Amino acid sequence: MSISAALFAQAQDVSVLRNTVDVYSNSPMVGSAKFNAMAGANGALGGDANSLLTNPAGLGVAISGEVSGTLSISGNKNRSSLGGAAVDYTKTKGDLGNAGGVIAFPLMTETAWKFINIGINFSNQSLDNVIQSPGNANITASLPDGQASLAGHAYSRYGNLSKMSFGVGANYNHNLYIGAGFNFFNASIDQGDQLAFRMANNNALDFFDKQYSPYYERSSGFSASLGVIGKLSPNFRLGASLETPTFWNIDREFNFYNHPTYGNGSGAESRKFTSPLKATVSAAFVANKNFSLNVDYTLGLTKPDYKVYGNPERELNDFFKDNYKNMSEVRVGAEYRLQQVRLRGGYSYLSNPMDAINITRFDNGGGVGDETYNNLMLSDRNLISFGIGYDFKSFYIDASYQNITSKYSNPFMRGFVGNNFDSAYYSIDSKSIYENGNYAVSDVKNSRNNFFLTVGWKF
């Protein structure tokens, strides 16, 4: 498996691997401030439009109509370390994080079916992530203009991922709830990968872009979900849901360099991608009207898969067959009501979806050797959240905070020109080509601090 990963990386961009898992195999989980304060754990509780993010059967729990909108303020900080130096990148962004509503239709019949409810939910999250790795004078290169040393590297991704969901839920005798939803995804990514070298002869900087970058992707996808919630007793509920793979159409525009016929220019390509099938099981304890606790467990059941048009997609699929682990996530959330005040808290753990991978890399002294990484490109993630709300009967206002942390190793600098592939780095200014068989690897600590404010109306 390590050999297949090393060979694969000669022909493919690390960013493609990262985005396959981090963007196209992921779903936006930005809900209302209540939902976010409970770490997204509501699979067996339901009751509002955010049920479409976990279990559409939760729509059937609602007994009145409701609409809400959520302002999201996301702060992202990366600290990247290499060779004893570190570079920080921080960005704060505000946006519409969530909007949704439920319309409840009581059934005035003699049957046990009590409600048929319709819900709509929009979830939106930022994909912005910039890793600025410091240089290391011990890592050198022989360029056409002379000797040089690594002055730094920048991996940049800007964009958004959104999910629009429509669903219906039904209530059977206030004991059994079923639901179904349709989900429409859109992703927008502007991405770059750039190396900087410092020339030994004049101390000038020379910048190199990776072949086929920067690139711009505009993508759309579709999935469906089914769910059920059952009351075992007035205090205990169990839930289960299944979300089909998301079927993506990905359109990319990119820059290319040193083509034997066209030289430098731009091109376009399209791909089809299928994300993993996901299942969620949930349990909830509702002590009384004042306290509730919910636990969700989500597991990916299949692996990422590209439709094969040629060797690149075949190599991508081979990589994920050998190195991808099924994603799993645990979410725990609780709410306590004190008259009209709502106090909430939650925790979530998302596992690393990649196996350990062995690569050849530069060490801090400039030497070359093999090393196995348990967190290459991606890692596990911990989320802690809490929030507060106030219910004005018809209107309510909620606020919440999330802290999300992860640590991973960031590989870059490797690139080759072969008979049927090109992953080298190119300088437009000096017309130099940089090829290299080894990675440089920086250590990245990511911290996200997110704030949410929701205003809602019940009718």
Structure description:
It is a single chain. The protein is mainly beta and 459 residues long. It is 8% helix and 62% strand. The protein is built from four helices and 23 strands. The strands form two sheets. The protein has a 14-stranded antiparallel β-barrel with strand order 1-2-3-5-6-8-9-12-13-15-16-19-20-23. A two-stranded antiparallel ribbon has the order 17-18. A hairpin with a 4-residue loop joins strand 8 and strand 9. The radius of gyration is 24 Å and the shape is elongated. The relative contact order is 0.20.
Helix/strand order: HHHEEEEEEEEEEEEEEHEEEEEEEEE
Q: What is the number of helical segments per DSSP (H or I, 4+ residues)?
A: 4
Span between termini: 57 Å
Major sheet: arrangement of strands: 1-2-3-5-6-8-9-12-13-15-16-19-20-23
What is the average per-residue confidence, as pLDDT, rounded to a whole number? 94
Q: Beta fraction of the residues?
A: over 45%
Question: What does the main sheet amount to?
Answer: 14 strands, antiparallel, barrel
Taking all Cα atoms into account, the compactness measure Rg is 24 Å
| Helix residue percentage | under 10%
Number of strands: 23
Overall 3D shape: elongated
**Uncertain segments:** 1-11
Class per helix and strand makeup: mainly beta
